[in-house]
Amino acid sequence: MKSYWMQSDGESAQIELREIDQLVPGAGQLLIRVRAAGLNRGEFILGHGLHKAGAAKPIGMEAAGEVVSCGAGIENFHLGDRVMGRCSGAFAEYALITEREAMKMPDSMDWNQAAAIPLTALVVFDMLVVQGGLKAGEWVFIPGVTSGVGVTALAMAKTLGAKVIGTSGSQAKLDVLKNIGLDLGICTRAPNFYDEVMQVTEGKGVDLVINTVGGSVFPECVRSMAFQGRLATVGYVDNVLKAEIDIQLLHTKRLTLFGVSNKLRNPEQRAESLPAFRQEILPLFAKGQALPLIGKVFSFDDLLAAKAFMDSNQHLGKIILAGSE
Which of 4, 91, 9, 17 is nearest to 46 (CA)? Predict the structure, then answer.
């Protein structure tokens, strides 16, 4: 079977398509025929520490496909089921998903939509609901709203009844997102959004920040927060890993700052929010709500082109790698 692998020397990485032995599901695992897989920028950023220097590993972190084999102890899935889930080695003809991570796809959902959900939507659910405690009517601010995580956060936040502000360096992309619910788009890549944020929130600030950009906008995000506001750090595409914290604002406004990463969590911890996600979010997908925006779909042979497209920041929404023919 074909599988994409990446090897890093700590400074650069090489991606290659390999021919490997057919995977066999172990106890509690499903083997799926991959029909689509989602790209995630963090997997390719060496500073995120997902790849050890000198080690080669299969890549791809979320997939959708049909079950072709079940390991021992599987109770809730059967051959032919259409499923989606987080997994390792998703950029391949076949992938293994544990039963606790697998989710049955709503009948109305296509492969590309399903592949855009497992990792990104669960991260967004963590930020908005599990840790973020989002309530209907609150203001959410998303620097870098046109990224895959940003667009997913916009869609889910709006479905949950929030009002959303976002930034992007592209006015054209912001205009598209306004048509699907963005309340205010600020065309900037610089940390200069405080005045517009405070104006639209009538001087109160935002209740929840989803920082997809990194340290370059962190101080301005904190400055823009409301009393008892929360800030989630989910990425640092600017590669700025240090930032000043206004201790007085943190203290007087009773702010909450938290990170969103699965890097140090064990499988049980990563799966903790799945039951709530299945109960609260999957029914929304089935109704056609909060669906991911697909930026572009590449063929299986074009992973390098898909990554280059992602690195160019031309896309709006999720980039998908289609399954092999």
Answer: 9
